[in-house]
Amino acid sequence: MSDAFGPEHQRIGNQQREEAVTALNDHFALARLDITEYQSRVNRASGAQTYAELAELFRDLPQPHPPFLAPPSVPFAAAPPPYAPPPTQQPYYPPPTGPQYAVPPPPGMGFPNPAAPYGYDPMTGVPLSDKSKIAAGVLQLFLGNLDIGRFYTGHVGIAVAQLLTCGGCGIWSLIDGIIILVNGGTDAQGRRLRD
């Protein structure tokens, strides 16, 4: 058989052309090709008809090459073992001493904190209010025209505004009560209302 009909002279399809262009993109991204040379090689890859024409585009470039241009594997050759980095020694941290809490303990247990007699918010760690969101929401819903819910939480400015508008004709106080029941809210000191 002559070399004119060897595997390098076999015709290629669109898949091989696209793989060659992808490999050229990688070389361009690594600054191995300038823009004019990149465009020239992409144009030649798009018009290539044989494996030899594509192989010529990668002759002076290191890996990555398109998969179909990889050297043929030797049958029955043992593959080298994969590289495994040496194991690293993890640093030793001695266990903590004393009581450990993710959040401060509830009142009456452990060490009481006078700054947070009703505990801490588990999500933010901020002290909880002494006011209840259920009490504030129910007061706002049923006594909304008098705005007792907002007076209860200590928001005197909002309470007076609602009182002067009769709770926004009842709509403002109704929506405000529902929001307090669903989302909670804060008291006048900015602490989250208890559940």
How large a portion of the residues is in β-strands, by DSSP E? Answer: under 5%
- Rg value: 37 Å
> In one word, what is the shape?
elongated
Structural class: mainly alpha
Uncertain residue segments: none
The major beta sheet can be summarized as: 2 strands, parallel
Averaged pLDDT: 76
Number of helical segments with 4 or more residues: 8
Characterize the quaternary organization of these chains.
single chain
H/E series: HHHEHHHHHE
The count of β-strands is 2
Distance between the termini: 88 Å
The helix fraction, in percent, is 40-55%
**What spatial order of strands do you see in the largest sheet?**
1-2
Highlighted features:
195 residues, 4% strand, mainly alpha, single chain, two-stranded parallel ribbon, 40% helix
Report on this model:
This protein has 195 residues and is mainly alpha-helical. Among the domains are: 3-69, no CATH class; 128-194, no CATH class. It is 40% helix and 4% strand. It has helices at residues 14-29, 35-47, 51-57, 133-142, 148-153, 156-164, 166-169, 171-183, and strands at 128-132, 192-194. Helix 4 runs antiparallel to helix 8. The radius of gyration is 37 Å and the shape is elongated.
